[in-house]
Amino acid sequence: MQDGTAAYQTPTLPVAQEFTDPAAAVDRLEELYTKATAFLADHFSATVTRGKPHTRIRAYYPEIRLTVTSHTKADSRLSFGHVASPGTYATTVTRPDLFRNYLIQQLTLLMENHGVPVHIGPSDTPIPVHFAVAGNPAVSVPQEGVLEFSLRDVFDVPDLATTNDDIVNGVRTENPDGSMPLAPFTAQRVDYSLARLSHYTATDPQHFQNHVLFTNYQFYVDEFEAYARQVLADPAQGYTAFVATGNQIITTADGVLPPAGKMPQMPTYHLKRADGQGITLVNIGIGPSNAKTATDHIAVLRPHAWLMVGHCAGLRNSQSLGDFVLAHAYLREDHVLDADLPIWVPIPALAEIQIALQDAVAEVTQLEGYELKRIMRTGTVATIDNRNWELRDQSGPVQRLSQSRAIALDMESATIAANGFRFRVPYGTLLCVSDKPLHGELKLPGMASDFYRTQVSRHLQIGIRAMEHLRLMPIERIHSRKLRSFEETAFL
Fold it and tell me: Residues 370, 375, 380, 382: what is their CA dihedral angle, to the nearest 10 degrees?
């Protein structure tokens, strides 16, 4: 074939075909993707061992395409699974093996709501060779500088100019061919995040579960492993495995997890269920930049919920160390998302998440109603990008915090909530007060009271309990219409 002035080789693949069976459609996606990536991997290995070929090598992502001609209104109680108006819709697809259940679910709803088939075939978007060979044990990747020519002279490489969030940010309403986006992320954007997830978390994307907890404190990791061992001892709990950093897996309570030789930037752990409805815990560390990085990439996996369970500064003198804070609103002074989500966009509390968290606090602490107010406050959480904000002139920051009615301050929660809003991932925040800088109670060794220690040990249990409540919630209820804009992609 010819691409401008350069000849290139492509694999022989089936042409686009119409499907009315969602599972068969995904089978074809897997066939197209497997053949395309195998073609690239084989030619990559040949190029490394034999030298630069005479032609460029190219393969394409598979594509889902459908056309809706009727204005018949779909069941609008669902926030997804239908298109807003007649037209042609399309999306490229990567790793259909990883997303098989998700793809079948979304295609089933589209076919039921609109009564139309989908067309499955190769797209016109090249697969970057980096993504085709990543994680393939049969492919040996040479070090930079070993080859006497540039890989980009032979293969397609990631194009950061088109790997963006224009669809979810609402600034791209058409694909280059005039069709409308069917899914919130393109295949290349998904591939980019899958590669980043492996790098930052040191666990493979297939281990991630549909319910994600974020924390900023190592203690929660220890508690999570202890809980995992506890539930693995009881098959009735439904959990099947625990995955630690480095893809180390145990399936029994007494399984051995050797210490990791080198910890990644964001150590991640997965308590798995066979249906993917388990819980993933990510220790994102400190700061809004880490919070954005983690959520930017986890979002492509389309989780059902993510929650922040970390430590915060209590801003009210009536609070005690160890008290809980349930965020009902967010003051965004983190700034990392200002270019993607303007500061004037409200980040609403989601009733389904709030109820699950409050119920979980009540269950774990055995307090309810008015008594629950002794240890938990609801209100605005402020997120700031300056770790040492206390050292600045206090007149400005304190006045803003007071005017906002903030009750707690941290460096991650508003970022995680805002990215949840942006990516249509249900979000929530439950924090534990670890210091009160405005009232002279700083985090110092030895100052933790028994109450504080007890509350910290309960905190992760509350997060887990909330996720288990959400797991039992119908998917159409948790993915409500509150997170959807005027014209949304049909895929969740």
Answer: 180
- Collect all residues with Cβ–Cβ distance below 8 Å to 144 and sequence separation of at least 6: none
pLDDT tier, 110 (very low <50, low <70, confident <90, very high otherwise): very high
The whole-model pTM stands at 0.93
Confidence bin at 66 (pLDDT 50/70/90): very high
Residue with structure tokens 């594509």?
63
CB 408 within 8 A of CB 440: no
* Residue 405 CA from chain centroid, whole number: 30
245-292 pLDDT, tens per residue?
A: 999 999 999 999 988 778 889 999 999 999 999 999 999 999 999 999
Q: Which of 151, 123, 168, 194 is nearest to 53 (CA)?
A: 151
Domain contains 492: no
- Phi then psi for 166, rounded to 5 degrees? -60, -35
Q: In Å, what is the CA distance from 186 to each residue of 35, 63, 127, 171, 261?
A: 19, 10, 12, 14, 35
DSSP characters over 49-92:
HH---SSEE--EEEEEEEEE---PPP-TTSSSSS-SSSEEEEEE
Instruction: Report the candidate in 461, 448, 196, 414 with the shortest Cα–Cα distance to residue 308.
Output: 414
Domain, as residue range, for 119: 2-197
How far is it, in rounded angstroms, from Cα 110 to Cα 372? 44
Cβ-proximal residues to 446 (8 Å cutoff; 6+ apart), any chain: none
DSSP state, residue 205? G
Residues 6+ away with beta carbon under 8 Å from 121: 13, 14, 15, 16, 17, 32, 62, 63, 65
Classify residue 487: in a domain, yes or no.
no
Given a contact cutoff of 8 angstroms between Cβ atoms, the answer to whether 22 and 104 are in contact is: yes
Dmax over CA atoms of the chain, in Å, equals 77
Final residue in a domain of this structure, among 180, 197, 214: 197
Q: Are strands 87-92 and 180-181 parallel, antiparallel or unpaired?
A: parallel
Question: Given 197, 222, 249, which residue is the final one in a domain?
Answer: 197
CA–CA dist 304, 480 (Å, integer): 11
Q: Please give the distance of CA 224 from its chain centroid, rounded to a whole number.
A: 19
Please state, rounded to an integer, the average pLDDT across all residues of the chain.
90
Does 263 lie in the same domain as 233? Answer: yes
> Can you say whether residue 127 is alpha, beta or left, with left for phi > 0 and alpha for psi between -120 and 50 degrees?
beta
CA distance 74 to 84: 9
Distance CA 492, CA 489 (A): 7
The rounded distance, in Å, linking the Cα atoms of 64 and 478 is 26
Residue 488 domain-assigned (yes or no): no
| CA atoms within a 13 Å half-sphere pointing along the CA-CB vector of 218 | 2
pLDDT at 196: 94
